[in-house]
């Protein structure tokens, strides 16, 4: 039987092997130096800064970063959201390069279709029923606002001061109304407009101040007719916050005791989204809006989040949640860079009546007083 020579695998020549590694290493170094040269030698317009990288990473969901943390600390393996699989490298690269999110048409259409500027909102805390279809809607008022609104019979009378909180301290809260003519259909002669110069959101601000004082907290209310101010100065509706800004700064400079700032608004969503029944009574719901286009917005966000949680613990369902806004089509700051305790609060909606709004104003005062006095106690103890 013929014998066959056993085949042996040839071992690569040592010189040839090292040559391949040398060429590969040289190519990597060349590409590295080219990249560094492009980044450092390019015009400032094209350089990458930290805010550019931040803009890229905002396209990623927070859950994606949990997998990165898990690589360093296995404890994070228990923090994965339910039914959430690890994102593939192709998915992450696609999000970073295109700013589009697969299976989410809003990421493509939200910046292209007029009227979808609310896409720039981010839901930080979602209350009951809150999603991208039920975010606050802002409509521009007419050039001329009538004074045809009527308060009517208001059953929800102002409550007496609780015992032990009779002493009114200095003014601690400043209440403003940047869109002061925002009104409510139940108090208007018809639905031709949702704005009025007499019966509007300022009445809610007045009730909130009275309720705060009943809780022992001094409050100052600004009744500036911002709509008329805009008209006098030839400014547009989107410049309302610019018109309100010097008024807030003046209040801060002349009243050093002020610590908290509430800018009250009225949403344009229908009644089913802005009303909740608690204990057999109808209440107007709140939603907190924070502008994310200033460096310290997280402080404002913490205040709003704390208020949401405290409201929900006492009156479940009354808060629609907390959202942030930034980007084109929105103000993005809302004067909240002036103070870490300045927040925008949407009080109810266009179909709520004053009874429902006043009940909610009393609730806000009650819950905020608990927050305020707890914070004051902690401050005194420290």
From TrEMBL:
<dbReference type="InterPro" id="IPR010897">
    <property type="entry name" value="Spore_II_P"/>
</dbReference>
<feature type="compositionally biased region" description="Basic and acidic residues">
    <location>
        <begin position="144"/>
        <end position="160"/>
    </location>
</feature>
<dbReference type="Pfam" id="PF07454">
    <property type="entry name" value="SpoIIP"/>
</dbReference>
<feature type="region of interest" description="Disordered">
    <location>
        <begin position="137"/>
        <end position="167"/>
    </location>
</feature>
<protein>
    <submittedName>
        <fullName>Stage II sporulation protein P</fullName>
    </submittedName>
</protein>
